[in-house]
# Entry
Amino acid sequence: MRKFLAPLLLILASCVAPPQVPPPAGPVEPAPAPAAGPAETWEVAVSRLEVRVYRDGPMAKFAHNHLISSTAITGRIDLRDPRTASGFALELPLDSLIVDDEAARRVAGDDFATPVPQKDRDGTRRNMLGTQVLDVARQPVLRLTSDGITGGPENFTARVRVALRGEERVIEVPVTITEQDGVLRLHANLKLRHADLGLTPFTAGLGAIRVRDEFEIDCRLEARRAT
# Structure
């Protein structure tokens, strides 16, 4: 019986179709990005920039923290749908920078509670605008242009091309964008190091008094539709 059973099993096995193996999946084509809508241009109507610079060095107690401010940012925001296709071009005349405005220091917190004499404010501004720091003689206007935007729907990260001292740097800036009652508002708050902008911290007394490498920037803009 066994000698007939073995050939029968072989015949049955040869009649069973082999399992079908599905072909490997091909690469998935990414969905095309939505086409950007037409630009709606907004012009900056109100601006407020604050830069907080801190003292450092072994004799820092004889120096001051400084609050640098300006309300002179101008430019445009080209708003598109999706928002990540938007762009902007902004300018800040460096001569508009104010050092240690008394009203601004009063609301800036304990780090800026100590009054700064006028002669110290004048000296700080002169050093800041001079060749060692901003070098306004070479380039009197700071220019900011968008180099790409990600995120949403209100919190974004903008790659910003910064033109300063005759050079360009690209930094990433967290920015909130909201629109209400015909006003477009942008708010950016971040910390940078001097090297991020191609700068060197100011020092005096062979480094006994110097500016801390890290500083803070807070910028608020209000824009209205261009006519």
Observations:
- The first strand starts at residue 40 and ends at 53.
